Amino acid sequence: MVERTSPVRPLADEARDAARSRILRAAGTVLSRRGLAATVDDVADVACVSRRTVFRHFATREGLFAAAIRSGVHRYAEQLPPPPEDGDLRGWLVEVLTVTHRLNARNGRVYWELAALEPEAALSPELLGAATERRESRRAFAAEVTTRLWHARGGADAAPPWLVDAVAVHLSGFTTQSLAGDFGRTPEEVAEVSARVLEACLRSVLEC
Q1: CA 100 vs CA 44, 62, 117: distances in Å
Q2: pLDDT of the residue at 207
Q3: Is 64 within the bounds of a domain?
Q4: What's the Rg (C-alpha) of the chain?
Q5: Is 34 a domain residue?
Q6: Which of 200, 192, 100, 102 is nearest to 149 (CA)?
Q7: Domain residues for 88?
Q8: Hey, CA dihedral for 9, 11, 14, 16, is it positive or negative?
Q9: What percent of the chain has pLDDT over 90?
Q10: Residue 155, Ramachandran bin (φ over 0: left; ψ between -120 and 50: alpha; else beta)
Q11: Tens of pLDDT along 23-44?
């Protein structure tokens, strides 16, 4: 007799979770293309479900889009590589930048719009919360990457604020769009350029 070690989830629960995930993915696609001008009908079309089905899983348009934005934010943390144990961060930096620029390209228009919003922008509480979480996550991510690079290259105390700003710029969707859109660069090429710039910044401050 086989001993059951964990409860079996009802098929209805699995179907509900699958439908919710499908709608969230569709919302991410629509927000990438249309930004905050996207509609629930757009999401329903991409997900190949009815408008009624969308609202069965998400009570409001704002709640749906806030969930999709948060899902995009969490995707960065899930896909970023851990730092190496040997202290050589050059390859890690390129990999971090490559993953970031790929995700930036995927997230698209909504992230540029959110980055350009004033903190007091007239958004619903759900969207404002998601926008705030995105902003705070970006700041923490830039600070973490900067600190790892700074200490690995022999920097003492805290890295200078301008270096954090430089790292933030080269992790941003604006860098992705500028080089990919205007110059036809791939996310991998954008990452290589960004890595070279950031390493030059590190050398300049450490050699002063």
Answers
A1: 28, 26, 21
A2: 82
A3: yes
A4: 20
A5: yes
A6: 200
A7: 11-206
A8: negative
A9: 54
A10: beta
A11: 999 999 999 999 999 999 999 9
Own/partner contacts of 193-196, CB < 8 Å, gap of 24 or more, are 194/97, 194/101, 194/170, 195/90, 195/93, 195/94, 195/97
Amino acid, res. 155: G
pLDDT in tens, 160-196: 999 999 999 999 988 998 999 899 999 999 999 999 9
Work out the number of other CB atoms within 10 angstroms of the CB of residue 2.
4
In order, the DSSP letters of 173-201 are HHHHHIIIIIH---HHHHHHHHHHHHHHH
Q: What is the DSSP letter of 167?
A: H
Number of domains composing the chain: 1
The whole-number pLDDT of residue 185 equals 95
Assigned domain for 38 exists:
yes
Burial of residue 4 (CB within 10 Å: 0-12, 13-18, 19+) is exposed
pLDDT of residue 84: 76
What CATH code is carried by the domain that includes residue 176?
Answer: 1.10.357.10
pTM for this structure? 0.81
Residue 102 in domain: yes
